[in-house]
Amino acid sequence: MDRETVSALLSDFYRNKYVPYEYDFSLMSKHALSRIYERYVSILRLEESPQAPLPLFPRLPEEECNRAYGSIYTPQFIARFFARYLREQMPPLAYKRIQTADPACGSGIFLRTLLELQCDPTQDGVTTELIQTAFGNVLGLDIDENACQATRLSLALLYLVLTHRLPETLDVFSAESIKYYQEHPKLKGTYDAVIANPPFISLDTQTLAMRERVSQFMGEYASGRIDMYLAFLHIGLEMLKPGGYGLFVLPHSFLLGRNASGMRKLISETSWIRCLADLSAIRVFPDSGSYIVLLIFQKKPDTGQKAPPATIIKCQDLVGRALQDAVEGRRIETNFYSIYDIEQDTFGEGEWLVLPPTESRLKSKFERLPVIDDFLHVRQGFVSGADGVFIVPAKQIPPGEEAIFVPYLRDRDMKLYTVPNETSHYFFYPYIGETKVEEDRLRDEFPQTWAYLSSHRRKLEARRSLKRYNRTWWEPMWPRPPKNMMRPKIISPHLVLIPRFSLDREGKYAISHSPLLYPKETGAEDDLLRFFVAVLNSTPCYWHIATHSHVYRGGYVMLEPKTLKKT
Fold first, then answer.
1. Disulfide engineering: 311 pairs with which of 275, 282, 450, 508, CB 3.0-4.6 Å?
2. Using an 8 Å Cβ cutoff, are 108 and 154 in contact?
3. What is the pTM of this model?
C-alpha cells in the first residue's frame, strides 16, 4: 500500500467523520486496556493450517473462547492493593528496585500498577537509570501470546510516558509457566515478589498433557482433583528469596479444600501469612462462579526474627475502603468489614478457618460440644452418572413395573422441616426390599424397563467411571442400598442459601448427591431425628456449617458429609 493510504488508515484511529472529536489514546488507562484484552484480544487464536498463507494477506485470527486458558480479568483495586502493600513493607529505595515476577500476567495489570508506583515521577530519587532498572527487574509469563502482547503494549506505553522513548526489551514471554520454570532453574529463590491471579482451571477443563505436568510438578503437595492455580502458587513460593513476598488471588476453596491441604501445609511451614482478605461475600468476578480470597505471604527470612501477626480482612461490602484501611494499618470492625490480627499458629491447622474475634468466641463454644457424627450417620444420596436416563417422570413408568422405581425428591422441591406428600419424578432403583435385582431378573420380569435402558445403552456405556468401578452398563453408579437411603432420615439440598433440612419420616424419597442423616443407634429414632432437624435448621448451627463450607456462585453454600460430620 502507498504511504497516503497507510496514513489515512492510521488517522482513522484518531479522527472519525461521524464524531466531532479526536481520540487521545495517551489517556487510555491500564484498567481500560485490561478490559479490552479480556473482552476481545484473549479470544483471538491463530488456527494452524497445512496450507501456507499468502504473504500479502496473512490469515486473520479466529474468535475462540477457550476455557483451558482460565483467563479472568483482575480488577484494578486488587492490583493497587498488592502494589501499595508491598510499598509499605520496605524502604523506598528497596521498593523501587525489587525483582518481581508474574507467572500468569494476562494483560499485565499487576506489573503495570507496581511499576507506576515504583517509578512515580513526583517522588524523590526517580531517575531514568532507576526507571530502566525497575523495568528490567520484572518478568511476565503467560501461555497466551495475545496476553503477552497486551502486557508488552501496556508496559511500553508506561515506559514511553516516563522516558519519552520506547524500551529496547521487556522480559515478557509467551510460555507455559511450569515448563518455563523447570527449564530455567536460576529463577528459584531470586525474586523479592511474585504477584499473580493464576488461572482457576479445574481438572475437568485441563488437557491430558496439562494434568500430567501439573501432577508431576506438584508431587506430594497436592492430591485428588488438582486445580491449576495450585501449581502457580507452588511456582511462586519456590521463586521467592528468603524474606520475599507472594501476593495471590485464589479461590475461596483454597482455605478449606482437601486438594489444597498440601500447599497450605507447605506455606505455613516455610512462610508467614502476612495478610488474608476474604472477599467471598463479594462478586469480584461477575462473569465467573469463583469467589476469592487475597493471600499475601512472606517467605521466612534467614535472620531468625520473630513471627509477625497475620492481618485478616473479612469483607461483606465496601471492599475498597477495607483494603485501604488494611494498608494503612487500621484494625477495625464495622457492619461492612472487619480487620484484625491473629497469630501464625492459626495456620498450622488442616483448614484455614479465620474468623473475627466475636465469631471466634462462638467457634470456641462449639468446639466444646459433641458433633453430629457422634449421633448420626452422614451419607450422600445416590450418584447415577446419568440422571437424564435413570430419573423419569411418573407417567413414564411402565405399568406393572413400579417395584423398581422409587419416588425421587429434587433439591428444588425440598422444604423446611417436612417433605411434600408426592413428587413428579421417580428414580430407577434396582432393589426389591433389601435384595439387589440382577440382570437376568431385570430382563425377564421388567421387560419394558429393560427395553428403555437398552435404548440408552450407548450413553450409559460412555460413563467414565463404569469400568473403573466394575459396574454393568445398565445400573446406576452408586444407587445406595435401601438400609442407607430408603429409611427414615433427615435430608437437605446440596446447595443452600438458608437452612432447609427436612424430615423424611417414612423413608419415602430417594435423593441425588445431597446429604442424608439417620441415627447410629436404634431406639427412639423418631425423637432423635426430630430433635436434630430442629438443631440443624437453627441459626447458630447453620452459621457453623456455612463457615466451614465452600462458597459458590450466588453465595450458595455446598453441604458436604465431611462438613456435617464435624458440626
1. 275
2. yes
3. 0.70
